[in-house]
Amino acid sequence: MHLQAEKCAIFWCELLRPIIFEEIEEEGVHQFLQQTAQTQVVFPNGRMAKPSLSTLKRKLKEYRRGGFNALGRKPRKDKGQPRKVPAEIMAKAVELKKEQPYRSHRTINRFLQEMYGTTVCRSTLYDHLRNAGATRLKLGITGQKVRKRWTADYTHALWVGDFSDGPFVMEGQEVLPTYLTAFIDSHSRYVVVARYYLRGEPGCPDRCSHPGSGGSWRTTGHLRR
To answer: What pLDDT shows up at residue 144?
Structure first.
């Protein structure tokens, strides 16, 4: 017996315990069932409700016929299958999703409306797609960013540089802004140059190295290990 079915069987046995263990005379069974039907109980799924009298009678009848195992909840024979939507429509929805994993439920429903004159609610559609292995994740589509590393086969083949606003400094009686610039050799990971410049001074990177300036960075020496 499945674990969930076993929990259900134990639950109903506990409710019917006085009858099962013959603590109540047969003529008092109906009265006991009526009283139990008026009592709030916590069901195995966590829901609090009153068991109906007809359900209690049915469970007692099942126990007397088949014992403990008869009280477990029977698995649905159509589990995982659409019960309200025709199988042909759900099969087409799966086909549309596998054909283009980025199709949303709205897009798939537009196709279904044109083909069959009907749509499928979002939750039902996604449940069936998941059971059929037709989700973005199962189809190999992920939202993770692809990260690659810039590298080179030998020294000085590629330098990678960056610029940043530096601190303000005193120059005479003036407070001037600065730039920080640094370049690293992609192959050796050696910092070729890293220095501050007064913004606007001759040779400052904002004049010779910014995109669109028409200038270029000039090498001032060789790499030394």
So the answer is: 73
If phi over 0 gives left and psi between -120 and 50 gives alpha, with beta otherwise, what is residue 133? left
Selected residue with higher pLDDT from 108 and 212: 108
pLDDT tens string 83-115? 578 889 999 999 999 999 999 999 999 999 999
> What are the domain boundaries of the chain?
3-71, 78-146, 148-225
- The C-alpha atoms of residue 26 and residue 3 are separated, in whole angstroms, by 32
- Which residue in 10, 97, 119 sits closest to 59, CA to CA? 10
58, β-bridge pairs: none
**Residue 109: phi, psi to the nearest 5?**
-65, -30
Which of 58, 65, 73, 62 has the alpha carbon at shortest distance from 3?
A: 73
Give me the residue label for tokens 């990971």. Answer: 189
| Beta-bridge partners for 181 | 163, 195
Please answer whether residues 20 and 29 qualify as being in contact, where contact means their C-beta atoms are separated by less than 8 angstroms.
Answer: no
User: pTM of the full predicted structure?
Assistant: 0.38
CA separation for the pair 61, 71 (Å, rounded): 10
